[in-house]
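Same chain as my last thread, 616 residues:
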Amino acid sequence: MKTLKFYKIFTILLINLGSFSFLNAQSSLKDTIKIYEVIVTGTKVAVSRNNVPLTVTVINEEEIEESSESSLLPVLSARVPGMFVTERGITGFGVATGSAGQISIRGIGGSPNTQVLVLLNGNPQYMGIFGHPLPDAYVASDVERVEVIHGPASTLYGSNAMGGVINIITKKQQKDGYNANARIMHGSYNTQKYMVNGGYKKKKFNVFAGINHDQTDGHRDSSDFSITDGYFRIGYEINNHFKSSFDFSLSQFEATDPGPEGGNAGNSIDITRGMGAFVINNKFDNISGSLRLFYNFGEHNISDGFHSTDNNHGIILYEAFNLFTGNTITLGLDYKNYGGKAENTFAMNGNGIVFSDTSIYELGGYFLLQQRIFSKLILNAGFRLTHNQVFGNEPVPSVGFAYNATTKTIIKGSVSKGFRSPTIRELFMWAPANNNLLPERMMQYETSVNQYFFKDKLSVEITAFKAEGDNLIKIVMEGNQPKYVNTGKFSNLGLEFAINYMPSENLKFHSNYSYISMDEPVIATPEQQFFLDGTFNWNNISFNLSLQSIVNLYIQTGQNSVKVSYNLLNMRTAYKINKHFDVFVKGENLLNTNYQINYGYPMPGIIAFGGINLHF
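reply #2:
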């Protein structure tokens, strides 16, 4: 009854909104309709965001730059409705006990996070042994845009795309010539951030590179953090039909776990992560596609003696065919192999012990059909079959539609399946391991409306969803021994709003809100989130003010569950001295809110930064 009532209310909203849009369209037939965003993550080939049945949020370079953040994930946590990322301090996430960086989309993420897939330029990024992404390695200054799929996208991307997909698309030099940028920041707790990047293009050749370094003493004892990250990309246009590129990144970071408040500090970590990818894209009149070779690797050292080396590599191949007007069929094949060696070098009186030294492969094939009918209706259907070396085959279907009711109204709906393969840790490592595990699974039902008003100066998107999952991997006691088994279930019901309003060239607003009802509370998922951001530009001065409100965030579950609510007010103002030089100051948590995101780890109060940007 609760679900039925929820969708009844949402249907009424759609009807009323659609009626208003018809009147609005009738009164503005002569208005110039803007070109809506083109995305690649929802179909793997460039299409209008309005033609994809899934909910996709796009964060562009301007929004990322306005934040002055060096790390990317906090920007997404604020600006993507239904998404939340845990933090534990002034900067940096870490991966030891008391770590942060858990990513939740619509209440689905896992701990460690294995249910949301992170891509770098379309290539999967996660640790080979534990299966989670590495949040410290995602640097904001190298990013051109980010496309976030809310909900399952396993038809296209396979395992780990169960709860959603975050595709980080890096910068590349677009125009002939060169440009360079640099930033220096200093702030509270001796926090220092340095960045330099630049690109060069001549005819068919282009190159881009960047280096970042962050360090902080931290707002608590033993909460220091340091990271250095480098990125390099080179591209070459072979001819009118083929383009190639190679990119490589390397990150090295060190951190210490300060431990829960009132306790002792935990372990320190020393981690190196890297990735490389070689890509050849093709584009003809009615055919386009890509061949991708990717390789991720890492070495993790923890002060308790844990040491691991891991890798995740594979091949991605897909081709899209436009057989006739309004039709696109995408066929794809991908192979990935992930694994590594995990050991403790201190164990057995210093002789060491190996926990696991193995790898697993997955092979998947899929198709995606998109068909336009009567100019306004776009139907989508897809199917994947994945073969995993351990558990065998997993079928993954999806269907959806996008209906352009008017030039100002787009209504969407979809039903999609997601899955997440068990990790090497869950299959083979330590006492809970169980090599008979099956994948976690979920189904999501979603409907949304996207509405434009006032000559496209105002856009409103409303989405309702229901997600049901089973086969979740949980630890249970069998006799006196803990063991991973497929036993967990969940049912999440939610509503999301996103509003963008630009009344003039000098003033713009963004706001989003999400509500989620969970049958069981989940750590790192607030019941309600609200974000409001406004930017005003006047002559050479820019002023930005943002408010984030979190309601009923569970930081501990079980018999002694704990939930918190808090509000954060941030401000940034910048002055452009000339086209090459600007300065800025920013303040975070200006309300001096006392709050926690990870249980027992208090977050900092008011913090301030000042910085200089250089552009050439």
